């Protein structure tokens, strides 16, 4: 069965510092990979996704993530944090085969940005 | 082009009552997914529906929960005889025919059972 592990339920960075949110997955076949952001009392917004092709994926708001098959990882980074980045971030996987769009989510990481 | 619409945004029910949560997918989308988010936890898959069909209900509790997506109208998640443990945020997502496209999420319904 597929699973997703996000290391660190809370991450705190200073404004302008590097953001690194970790995500590892467990799957016998490389799945499709997603990062979503959730602001308080809101739904989820897609930041970026990896399906096939280039392993470094750029998303919205300056975020990017790199798919590393050998490490079964899909860590999210941003060179310089902004106060508006404070939110909850979810990594998710979806089977790359089979007739389903069902997502399996990690537990989430709350990002705090200090002035 | 309206996004995924969920209503109500907030719902309060007394123990034993029924809760009905509605989800209207994005225009042109025929795949609907329901997820539940308990406090301090990630989203857990509940059910996947296409028009008039339940495709995958592996995440649905065996009792009291049901879902439908009729030919006309929104998808409905129904919880009978609610208990305090049902208090959570329930999110609906929809996607188009091509499965490797993204799923768009609604803003959720926050159910509180008192």
Question: What is the gist of this entry?
Answer:
The complex is a heterodimer of chains A (115) and B (114). With 115 residues, chain A is mainly β.
Describe this structure as you would to a colleague.
The complex is a heterodimer of chains A (115) and B (114). By secondary structure, chain A is mostly beta strands. In chain A, a hairpin with a 5-residue loop joins strand 5 and strand 6. Chain A is built from no helices and twelve strands. Chain A is globular, with a radius of gyration of 14 Å. Chain B starts with a strand and ends with a strand. In chain B, the strands form two sheets. In chain B, strands 2, 4, 5, 6, 9, 10 and 11 form a seven-stranded mixed β-sheet that branches. Chain B has a four-stranded antiparallel β-sheet with strand order 1-3-8-7, with no helix packed on it. The radius of gyration of chain B is 13 Å and the shape is globular. Chain B has 114 residues and is an all-beta fold. The chains are: A mainly beta (115), B mainly beta (114).
């Amino acid at each position: 069965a597929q699973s997703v592990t996000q290391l660190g339920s809370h991450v705190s960075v200073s404004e302008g510092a590097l953001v690194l949110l970790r995500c590892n997955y467990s799957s016998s076949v490389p799945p499709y990979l997603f990062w979503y952001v959730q602001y308080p009392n809101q739904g989820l917004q897609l930041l970026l996704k990896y399906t096939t092709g280039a392993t470094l994926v750029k998303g919205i708001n300056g975020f990017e993530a790199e798919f590393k098959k050998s490490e079964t990882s899909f860590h999210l980074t941003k060179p310089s944090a902004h106060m508006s980045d404070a939110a909850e971030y979810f990594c998710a996987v979806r089977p790359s085969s089979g007739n389903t769009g069902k997502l399996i989510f990690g537990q989430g990481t709350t990002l705090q940005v200090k002035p | 082009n309206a996004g995924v619409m969920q209503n109500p945004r907030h719902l309060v029910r007394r123990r034993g009552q029924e809760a009905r949560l509605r989800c209207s997918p994005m225009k042109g989308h025929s795949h609907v997914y329901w997820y539940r988010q308990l406090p301090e936890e990630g989203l857990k898959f509940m059910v996947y529906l296409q028009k008039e069909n339940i495709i995958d209900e592996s995440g649905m509790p065996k009792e009291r929960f049901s879902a439908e997506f009729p030919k006309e109208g929104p998808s409905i998640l129904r919880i009978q005889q609610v208990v305090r443990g049902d208090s959570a945020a329930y999110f609906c997502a929809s996607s188009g025919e091509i499965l490797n496209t993204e799923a768009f999420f609604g803003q959720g319904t926050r159910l509180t059972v008192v």
